[in-house]
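User: Show me a protein chain along with its predicted structure.
Assistant: Here is one chain, sequence first, then structure tokens.
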Amino acid sequence: MFRKILIANRGEIACRIITTAQKMGIQTVAVYSDADRNAKHVALADQAVHIGPAAVADSYLQGQKIIDACLKTGAEAVHPGYGFLSENPEFVTAVEKAGLIFIGPPASAINDMGLKDAAKALMTKAGVQVVPGYHGQDQDPKVMAAQADKIGYPVLIKARAGGGGKGMRKVDAPADFAAALESAQREADASFGDPICLIEKYITTPRHIEIQVFADNHGNAIHVFERDCSLQRRHQKVIEEAPAPDMPQDVRDAMGQAAVNAAKAIGYTGAGTVEFIVDGSGPLRVDGFWFMEMNTRLQVEHPVSEAITGLDFVELQLRIAAEDPLPITQEDLAIDGWAFEARIYAEDVPKGFLPATGTLAHLAFPAGVEFELGGVRIDSGVRQGDDISPWYDPMIAKVIVHGPTRDAALNRLTAALAECRVVGCETNIEFLHALSRHEGFAEGQVDTGLIARDLDGLTKTSPPSDHVVSLAALAAQDLLRAGQTDDFRDALIGWRHWGAAVQSVRLEQPDTSHEVMIAVHGNGQFTTTHNDTELGLTIDPITHARFGVAVGDVQHMVDIVTQPGAVHVFENGQSFTFTLPDPLETGAADATTGDALIAPMPGLVGIVSTSAGQRVAKGDVLVVLEAMKMEHALCAPRDGIVAEVLVAAGDQVTDGTTLLAMEPEDD
């Protein structure tokens, strides 16, 4: 077994690998960019080596710097994690040429599966059924459009390299094909350095089911059952589960065998995932699944398969790379219970799930374990106080739950998400919480279109209750700390000897303001008036952020986090942010007028398709902004004439930057 390994990655997956390595007595070396100098994975490792600036191309994609770090520190092997260099055959070859071991498959296997068109040809030869489509090299738009017509709409344009939903576009009609192809090719080139795309028939009620496989260097190969990853938005996974709902045993066996055949066909070793697109229009059947692609690495969602098998997949990777035979056979494996994983991202759901940035001023998760098996498991690569920057994937944490049945596990997921608290950037926690309670999802009716169909309901927000607004007002006036310390003066906050102190508080939310009258009675008792509703509140501080709040004879458990100028209230899976108006401010110009195009997130300007003096129509794409390697089209806010373009392609902009100005509308 290895004495020391280097992890050529960052964030959550680097922390995950380090944790298992330490349990096995293996020393670890981390690598880090300028932006990650104080990151969690750096603190966990035994050693860390700086490899360059924040930009991925200048740091985590610098294979030679990573190899040099191995040689400098005495690491014997490299674990690539996922993303970055994990599926780069040239890097594997360079690692081995340097006398080091790559903890993953051989370069030949990565090569075979790295390009989706070549992989599908190999799978057809190996007897694994593939989705009908065009996998040719001729990328002429006219040729591609003709092939799409031949396949029949709707079709799916897919980058042949990489994954994660990048370079992928669904096209419903011929009129939309050219623009979608151009956008997919551009995004594929930016993400993977390869603009070539293929076209597939779009399965109208698709399910995305994948099979985890392991193979060693002694001719042994197994599958570790399936994961259902059908809950997706913009072709990116949101919640995964294992096993798949309503999976007949004969289909499970057939898919598992197809995955093992795929691995053996390319001489695979290590951990891999064979992904299938499955017809979900009715009961799953043996002839209703098709090979989609193979990920020649560990997957983000691997913990759900660990949960139902009791295995540590990173440990298996390390043992296989150290030439050990697989310690288990197919007959040894059985499914134990059910597991779900939800990915918490820094993203602005109301703005269309745009990536968000910020500093994690408050970060709290439900009680559970980290990077190991348990009923509730939280895998995270960040800590309170860390920054979510525009440089890397905006994932904050993965919430993984395990239970004896699907219902039990799903209830546990809902409860765990309700206990997640993040302050400092926008997140998708409420969306995930709503999704976990979706009636169709609860019944196992999952397909890749579920989120898009029910997006309005899943993103619908409710106004805060009167007691939530009242609590925010109390927090804004610093009235909640009475009795939290041993200082007797805290118990006297708001007290007046001639009667209850009454004060007025104004709170702001987007498009809404709240006026709250507060009467302080002492000993944590208050009367508030909001929207002509009078409430009697009794506050029982539990921790610095958690409070028991009695409203009449009903007790509520609420978390409250205050920041300068803002109060955040969390209850029952919902969060509400209230800002406190500055009485000295005279007001600012409305940033939402139709006279400017504003960047809704930090990113790189990819395309500017207009110029000063040009007449545009509302909805015309004027700027394409790239964030987290995904393209986001920004459209004209109204009909009119562009007065000034303030950015150029290649500019890095921050959230709120004015990109262009339009001539004022006539009175």
